[in-house]
Amino acid sequence: MVLEQGALSGKYDTSHPFPADSDRGAVYNPMLPQLEKLNACLKEIADGHGVATAQVPVSWAIAKGTLPIIGVTKVYQVEDAAKAAALELSEEEISRMEQLADEMQLDVIRYWEKEMK
Length: 117
Fold this sequence. Notes:
Blueprint: H1 23-28, H2 32-49, H3 55-63, H4 75-86, H5 91-104
């Protein structure tokens, strides 16, 4: 999932974790210390483009040639998705995000997902 259940939206960090009694909390709260470095990079890129942090991972997925599937429940999330589709990331920005993601070596495959090979 592109935004990893909100973990890459800029909304959650070690100071503001997912609810502890939720499935998202069980999966992502232990990873938040590692994700903070990537989220800081996402925020820096977002600020440079004048967009919301959550738009950057969506644009990153598009830049990699994928069609991201995102869950939306609010109008602003649909608007953010449309803005993300128009956002053009530089090769340097993509490279920075790729390097950080590779360094983390996180396994975010949940029990209901199948690993793509």
